[in-house]
Write a structure and sequence with these properties.
The complex is a heterodimer of chains A (540) and B (130). Chain A is mainly α. Chain A contains 21 helices and no strands. Classes of the chains: A mainly alpha (540), B mainly alpha (130).
Amino acid sequence: MSHQSLSLTLFVVFVVITLGITLWASRQTRTAVDFYSAGRRIKGWQNGVAISGDYMSAASFLGIAGLISLFGYDGFLYSVGWLVAYLTVLLLIAELLRNSGKYTMADVLAYRMRQRPVRSAAALSTVGVSIVYLIAQMVGAGALVKLLLGLEGDAAAILAIAGVGVLMIVYVTFGGMIGTTWVQIVKAVLLMAGTVLLSFLVLTKFGFSMNKMFADAATASGKGDAFLAPGLRFTSTIELVSLGLALVLGTAGLPHILIRFYTVPTAQAARKSVIWAIGIIGSFYILTTFLGFGAAALVGHEAITKADKAGNMAGPLLAQTIGGGEGSFGGDLFLAFIAAVAFATILAVVAGLTITASSSFAHDFYANVLRRGQERDEQAEVRVARITALVIGAIAIVLASFARGQNVAFLVGLAFAVAASANLPTILFSLYWKRFTTSGAVVGILVGLIGSLLLVVVGPNVMGPKGLIFKGSDPLFPLENPGIVSIPLGFAAAWLGTMLSREPASEEMYEELRVRSLTGLGAEEAEVAAPAPAPARPAR
Amino acid sequence: MADIREPSRSPTTGRPPADEAVTATEAVGKDPEMVELERRHRRFVWPTTVFFLVYYMALNVLAGTSPGLMGTKLFGEFTFGYLFALSQFVMAFVVAWVYSRWAAARMDPLAADLRGKLHREQVKEKEVTE
């Protein structure tokens, strides 16, 4: 059996299992709260695993391993930033958000502000961030299929992207949030198992000596000790700080992570789910050391860049090498397994992103802006969400075909910059700043969103000799990641928009929001079978 | 603290039940326990946020300004830069653990107490209406 057909068989097995779960879940999806928030019946630890599933995307599994394998130490900086980011979520956002919102990120803003403007702006930025994130996942999927099927050329990559897109739409339209949550859980377990196994096998190759692994990686890279120090990928401090800010602040503005906190019954469960996520995600990112340096030492620079010039295939190639190399049964089997895990990873993340963006469009824009929140027809709302999933999937497929050849961790880093610039300022201000107004929120979101996207477009990855357009001229903006400019810009715009307006109603509602967000008074409760009100806890 | 009770000042007649909850929430908002809860929360989360952001950005700044220092080997092939990066994971695990212990001990009981007060307030309002 060739590795192509083996990997395809394994992949099909996984897809059948997850579709089965999704189909089962679809029978449990009856109401809008089921579709969007899994009835708020997800347990804290389950949600923690699901958050990990949502978060550990192609960027983490394929992208970081690739960056470390090509540039050594610098790639590991992504791992650090993406974990530390969870402290921002844990300390400042998760619990308060759980208590203040209902279905989407915009609910928190709409609580104290004029609904239509803030919901429109938030829906726009949710869709924007999700599409940038989706592009990266599709690029990863394309590279993987090219490797698996041994195909050459762009047509194969585009076909792969379209195939993943179709599967994703099936997931979201049938399963809703319950289905997506369980897909995330299954995927997170598979990904952790695959990564632990791969890391263990890498260590056996070096006699369980990390010293030997580092030394061999440095030698094989041809860079020597420089491979174990910063400077091969990033030479500018400003670029490093810019990327660091985007990574550490971006997670707290990612709509698909934030809405996961609505699936649990209480703020304590939200806290518990972040703690679980930090444990799982942290362990995973530490293991990227073995994937990356292991690939550098065992697979080698030339073979990695031959399969994908951005390094995205380092992890799967490492599996093949450890299993016995190309053409051997062990190598093909292990490659197939790791490729199936990577596919599962991408599909699950794509499903999570799509449901977030489509929920936001249906709930925030369709139901509350177009329909003005009157005569709530939840069936129609869910139908709109499903149609939106189709449209967003199509847009992402088209855009991803332009981004082929980029490292997926780098691409996701851009999505983080957009999220930190557009969403984080308004979320923080609306939770903590009494004076904050609707104008401030709308201006903050729009300036952060447009500013960060624009800086990427005029930056070195789109414009100039290394980019896609105007290859003859220099890029207008020198940094690859716009975070250091666009994040302060988002905060400044939200602040200025607030200072130039006054909104006594927002200040009044803030009084309620602070009580509700900190105590959980009046927060959306779990859907329970018995309609009896929850008894108050005895006062101590 | 526990025996301080806000009097029910909300006018209950003619208002839909949803508004009653809002009025009772307002009363809880002025409760000294609520003020204390908010004070504790802010005094913990903001300084901790500043701490972890400074610790994290130090890694990025050092990576940019001092690649030589970061590349210094401390144990075998383990460079200072790699160990500093690993320490970020340890820092994150510790902060998360400390926060969850702190919140369970210092936040949750107060929040539960305040929810209890609101519940009693609502029951009382309901009795008045009926």
